[in-house]
């Protein structure tokens, strides 16, 4: 098993196509895993890769893994269910250590679509759902559509309770969920 970590970007604004190209170029092995991480997102634990490997080994039939975060559009992925406006990266580092120490191999099942700031899936799952939806000009909701397809085939989406990812997610904006001009 290999685990690949990537930060795809689409100049064509067709993120589904970019995701599909990455997966197909990286591996054809159904047992390999691919994690997509947004450019404004960072795991703060220096040993996060080993942590994720341990979770994959414990929960190998998972459809999608995602990390707990400080900010995203779906609050069910945020630490304590709320979006943080805390700009202090050292606080987030301490929080990362805390969740790792208290929840290393713990997960929470998510039964709805997710935000894709930090998510991973096996090549097997990718093939089962037919990859990502490709629509010209579409960057938004690609992650939602993929996660819905995963749920529709009966696979689980697991929030890695002990893996904390700092997500900038338009921290400078008063209304981050609706400040999306750069994505259109």
Description:
It is a single chain. The protein is 30% helix and 21% strand. It has 184 residues and is of the alpha/beta class. It has a single domain (3-183), classed as Spore Coat Polysaccharide Biosynthesis Protein SpsA, Chain A (Alpha-Beta Complex), CATH 3.90.550.10. Strands 1, 2, 3, 4, 5, 6 and 7 form a seven-stranded mixed beta sheet that branches. The protein is globular and about 40 Å long. The mean pLDDT is 91.
Question: What is the structure about, briefly put?
Answer:
The protein has 184 residues and is of the alpha/beta class. Helices cover 30% and strands 21% of the residues. The chain has a single domain (3-183), classed as Alpha-Beta Complex (Spore Coat Polysaccharide Biosynthesis Protein SpsA, Chain A), CATH 3.90.550.10.
Largest sheet: 7 strands, mixed
Oligomeric state of the chains in view: single chain
Q: CATH homologous superfamily?
A: Spore Coat Polysaccharide Biosynthesis Protein SpsA, Chain A
Provide the domain count. 1
Low-confidence stretches: none
> How many helical elements?
5
CATH T-level fold name: Spore Coat Polysaccharide Biosynthesis Protein SpsA, Chain A
Mean of residue pLDDT values: 91
The top-level CATH class is Alpha Beta
* Strand residue content: 15-25%
Beta-strand segment tally: 7
- The class by helix and strand makeup works out as alpha/beta
SSE string, helices as H and strands as E: EHEEHEHEEHHE
C-alpha termini separation: 37 Å
Radius of gyration: 16 Å
Helix content: 25-40%
């Amino acid at each position: 098993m290999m685990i690949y970590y990537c930060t795809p970007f689409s100049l064509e604004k067709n993120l589904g196509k970019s995701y599909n190209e990455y997966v197909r170029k990286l591996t054809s092995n159904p047992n390999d895993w691919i994690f997509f991480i947004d450019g404004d997102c960072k795991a703060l634990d220096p040993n996060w890769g080993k942590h994720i490997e341990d979770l994959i080994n414990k929960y190998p039939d998972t459809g999608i893994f995602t990390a707990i975060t400080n900010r995203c559009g779906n609050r069910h992925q945020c630490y304590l269910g709320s979006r943080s406006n805390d700009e202090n990266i050292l606080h987030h580092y301490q929080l990362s250590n805390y969740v790792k120490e208290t929840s290393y191999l713990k997960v929470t099942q998510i039964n709805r679509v997710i935000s894709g700031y930090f998510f991973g899936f096996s090549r097997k799952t990718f093939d089962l759902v037919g990859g990502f939806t490709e629509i010209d000009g579409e960057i938004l909701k690609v992650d939602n559509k993929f996660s819905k397809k995963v749920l529709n085939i009966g696979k689980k989406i697991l929030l890695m309770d002990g893996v904390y990812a700092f997500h900038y997610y338009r921290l400078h904006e008063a209304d981050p969920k609706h400040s999306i001009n750069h994505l259109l």
